[in-house]
Specification:
Blueprint lengths: L16 H28 L16 H12 L4 H13 L1
Helix pairs in contact: 2-3
């Protein structure tokens, strides 16, 4: 029967083979832990609200219409400022 050990008492694969196995096991455990932590954090994150982030709910629709009319040139600057002041006063 053939022996897998050499004259120096080392396995035929080499004396340091167990070190690489240990490093591989530590890396595998680290990858699994990092993956579990990432999944946990993804599950705990708050969902993003499905709303239009550009439109503020506090913006008066009348002010928006006034801005559009001024931008199109339907009204002049003086009229825009007067109407804007009236809308802001309530």
């Amino acid at each position: 029967m053939m022996n897998d050990w050499n004259d120096q008492g080392q396995h035929a694969m080499g004396g340091g083979g167990w070190i690489f196995g240990m490093i591989a096991m530590v890396l595998l455990v680290a990858v699994v832990v990092v993956g579990l932590v990432a999944l946990y954090k993804m599950g705990k994150s708050k969902p993003v609200a499905a709303s239009n982030s550009l439109a503020s709910p506090s913006v008066d629709p009348a002010v928006e219409i006034l801005k559009k009319r001024f931008a199109k040139g339907d009204i002049g600057e003086e009229e825009y400022l007067q109407r804007l002041e009236l809308l802001r006063r309530g």
